[in-house]
Amino acid sequence: MNIYNVRDLLRQWFHSQGIVECPEFPAALSDGWHHPDVLLSILGGEATSFCVFQTISEKAFCNIAPLKNSPGLVWVVKPFDVQFLEIFGNFLTELEQNLYQGPTQQRFAIKGDSAQKGDLLERSCSYKVIFNGIETGECRVFSSILGEKLKESVAVVTMNVGRVLRSMSKEQAKSEPDWLENRKLSQFSAFQAFPGPKYNASRSSDFLIHEIERIEKKHVDSAFARLNDLIMLYNSSRGTFFENQKLCENFCNALKKIKETVFKASENAASKAGK
After folding, report:
1. Exposed e or buried b per residue across 14-35, where buried means at least 16 C-beta atoms within 10 angstroms of its C-beta
2. How do strand 108-117 and strand 68-78 relate by DSSP bridges?
3. C-alpha to C-alpha distance for 73 and 58, rounded to whole angstroms
4. CA-to-CA distance for 39 and 87, rounded, in angstroms?
5. CA torsion angle for 7, 9, 11, 12 (degrees, to 10)?
């Protein structure tokens, strides 16, 4: 089993459920829900469900080795309902059977985690996805983000497909997964091009606040371009954001302003189309 096979299986499952696929963001994200279209969906007012085959950043099993990129999956469900956990459980069971090509003992497990609050002033409860005893993903249910309470809770599943494959057996855990048969990820130059998050605080908070203000003022660019620039900036300086509350607040305020611009443009376009 390789990553290409697993993605094909997942695409077939999502297609059978009527769940559409969203384009990947061109960076390895430390958290799948930082994808700009996922953020806009969480903050928006419409019900939605979609998936993204997103490159994510992971640490080694011992959490000591430097971060590296891995193929991942992000799945957004809005609004969240407790019945979704049953649907998610069935999804994991079907994936498990496809991975082992037949009935097998229960290898996936969903484990409750503590509530979390992070850099984007979000509040959520979290469920860890365990596969063969190893954490391979999470399901987070958001109740607020950017310091604002959401009208409806939103579930976001993030799975590390590369780690799932490496966790299938002791032998596979020792090496990187195949992309295609006998072709490793490291053999593809394009996969190495995705910039990953930087956890060392190499940029000062003053510099980053200035950069946020500069991006906000780039009105020659579209709101989408400014949103993407903000996410890239955040992803490249996670360490500094983690250490500075004022910086996080400035970043969240900038996201709010751009979010309003995006939604207003969408409303205007819908109004014109209806005339």
Report:
1. beeeebeebebbebbbbbbbbb
2. unpaired
3. 13
4. 23
5. 170
More confident residue, 162 or 198: 162
HSE on the CB side for 59, CA within 13 Å? 10
Q: Tell me the HSE value of 243 on the side-chain side, using a 13 A CA sphere.
A: 13
Residue 7's closest CA among 17, 21, 26?
A: 21
In the chain, % helix, strand, coil (3-state, to 5) comes to 45, 25, 30
d(C-alpha 232, C-alpha 223), whole Å: 14
Burial of 1 (0-12, 13-18, 19+ CB in 10 A): middle
Determine the angle formed by the axes of helices 36-43 and 223-235, rounding to 10 degrees: 110
> What are 20-59's pLDDT values in tens digits?
999 999 999 989 999 999 999 999 989 999 999 999 998 6
CA distance 133 to 118: 26
- Is residue 138 within 8 A of residue 128, CB to CB? The reply is yes
223 membership: H or E segment, kind and range: helix 223-235
pTM value is 0.92
**AA identity, residue 231:** I
**What residue type is 130 in one-letter code?**
I
Main-chain phi, psi angles of 48, to 5 degrees: -160, 160
Mean pLDDT taken over the chain: 89
